[in-house]
Every structure is written in C-alpha cells, then in structure tokens.
Amino acid sequence: MLENIVEDVAVNLLRSAVIELPQDVKKAIQLAYQEEKSEAGKTQLKAILDNVELAERTCSPICQDTGVIIFYVKAGAQAKDLDNVEKALQNATKKATMDIPLRPNAIDPFTQKNTGDNTGRFIPFVHWEIVPGDDIEIMVMPKGGGSENVSALGMLNPSEGLAGLKKFVIDAVIKAGPMPCPPTIMGIGVGGGADISMKLAKVALLRPLDQTNPNPDLAKLEQELYKAANMTGIGPMGLGGRFTVLGVKIEYAHRHPASYPAAVVFQCWAARRAAARIHCDGTVEYLTHKVR
Ligand code: SF4
Predict the structure, then answer these.
(1) pLDDT one-digit tens code per residue, 119-133
(2) 221: closest CA among 213, 233, 230?
(3) Residue 65 Cα to ligand 1 middle (Å)
(4) Would you call 202 helix, strand, or coil by DSSP?
(5) Average pLDDT score over residue span 274-287
(6) For residue 180, which atom of ligand 1 is closest to its CA?
(7) CA end-to-end span of the chain, whole Å?
(8) Would you give the DSSP letter of residue 159?
C-alpha cells in the first residue's frame, strides 16, 4: 500500500536528513575550512566538520535542534492514493520522533503546550506540487529555529529596483549576525506577494549548492550577493572570517507594478534535506543519501 511505503520512506528521509548533511553542503564546508584565513573562523569550521563526522559515525543528529519538519511533495498527476500521503507523513514524523529520536518542536502558539511528537496543526507542513507522470517525489527539510528567527520580509520600493534588493539582502545578513549559525545558505525570494516571496525564498534552499541558477543573470546576482555577504566579516558562528555564507539561491515570481516583495530565509550550516522518488510500482529511489 502506498501509505506504508510513504511512511517508511519518510522515516528514512528524516533519519538521513538529521544525521548526514547532503554531499554538496559537506563539500562547501570542507572548502570553506581550507580557504578560511581567520583563526577563529577556521576553528569553528573544524568543530563543525568534526561534529558532522561524529554524527555520521554514531548515527546521531548533527544538531540538538532537529527543526520543524517541512515536506515538499511533487506528486505525479497519475499517481494513485494521494489522499493518504499526508496521513503517512504525519505518522512518519511521529515514528521518527520516537525512533531517531528528534527533539519535539511542535508547540501550540496559544497554550504553549508541546505536542511531544513533532506533529500539530499544519505541522509537519506539506507543500504540494502536481507534476506530469505517476511518480511521487518527497523532500524533507527539518528547519532549525535559530536560522528561521532571522528571516526577513521587505515590501521594497519598486523604484529602487535591483539596488534596493541588494541593500535589503545585505542589511538582513548584517542584522542576522551570528544568530543563524553561519556559515549559512541564503534563500532569496523576489516578487509575487508577501507570502509568495517568503515561500520562494525557502524553496530556493532546496537547490543544491553546486547547481548554478539556470538564469545567467540570476546566477551572476547570486555570485555578487555571495561575495558581498562574505565581505561583512561576520564569519563562521559569528566569530569573524571570510565565510558568512556558503551560497546564495534566488527564486522569483513576477510582481505587481506597485509592489516589490523580497524575502530572505537563512539556512544554518546544518542545512538538512533529503529526498526520494517513489515509482508507481512501489520501488523507491533515494536521491540524496544512501539509506542506512
Ligand atoms: S540554527 Fe541550525 S545549527 Fe544553529 S542551533 Fe538551530 S538547527 Fe542547530
């Protein structure tokens, strides 16, 4: 049954994501360690790499904050039993919380009561995209609170254009300082509306660091913002150095003539994500990790 397959796959994805960073992120941290000139920054990057290695060796989460669980589902229009997927993802989250274990991070904002199993109203949050075919692709992003807390949304002045956007992004980096556990990955969402730009900023974080933006102008802008963010000198864990960010990723939508929404979402060095594809015959292909 699809429900059982989805549940097993989602538990595996959660386990892989919280224990082992994706290859592109690991490589970027290793490269930053080799190139970092600041002694304090280098020490922090070494501690991060040791932590990553220890987590893999002991099958333990790389950070005590295992985040709020977000799933991105690309569902083939011809896939069957899609109405069971959300339930399976809820069950997987509860099971993973017990088994891995994950820190219970789902709190009622009014009663302050923790549900204890990482599920609750709209949590885990499931983003849906309908695509051609009959496969189901699931990506999980356990999103840490420290980096989430410095997210920024700006309704910019359209007349300031690109210059206004660049200023907004770099101001957000400076304001965030050490809070998002740098070196971070910055997701930038532009256009649409306030909610759309925020969503696009987080979606941008799903693109691997070694995948260049297919739009050459945006690829250039990502590089420019990457260099500018690293000129702030905030450095690894905010202790100074060249590596404040590991990468910048931009997504956009067209905008209303009178609005220029822009959003920045930070992903800490513990940039966790894992993905798998479930084929219509029930076979599973893991896309980011070797499943343990
Ligand atoms: S921001 Fe990331 S690295 Fe820092 S405590 Fe939260 S999850 Fe861990």
Answers:
(1) 999 999 999 999 999
(2) 213
(3) 6
(4) helix
(5) 97
(6) 1
(7) 22
(8) G
8 Å CB contact between 186 and 266: yes
pTM attached to this predicted model: 0.96
Shortest-distance atom of ligand 1 to CA 62: 8
Ligand 1 within 6 A of CB of 144? yes
Q: How far is CA 248 from the centre of its chain?
A: 12
Q: Sheet harboring 125-131: ordered strands across? A: 125-131, 68-76, 136-143, 274-278, 284-286
Q: Whose CA is nearest to atom 1 of ligand 1?
A: 146
Q: Tens digit of pLDDT for each residue in 51-90?
A: 999 999 999 999 999 999 999 999 999 999 999 999 999 9
Q: Helix (H, G, I), strand (E, B), or coil: what is residue 185?
A: strand
Give burial (CB, 10 Å; 0-12/13-18/19+) of 193. Answer: middle
Instruction: For residue 279, give both structure tokens.
Output: 């084929």
How many angstroms does the Cα of residue 151 sit away from the middle of ligand 1? Answer: 14
What phi, psi does 265 have (nearest 5°)? Answer: -120, 130
Pocket lining: 36 vs ligand 1, CB cutoff 6 Å: no
- Residues, the chain, total? 292
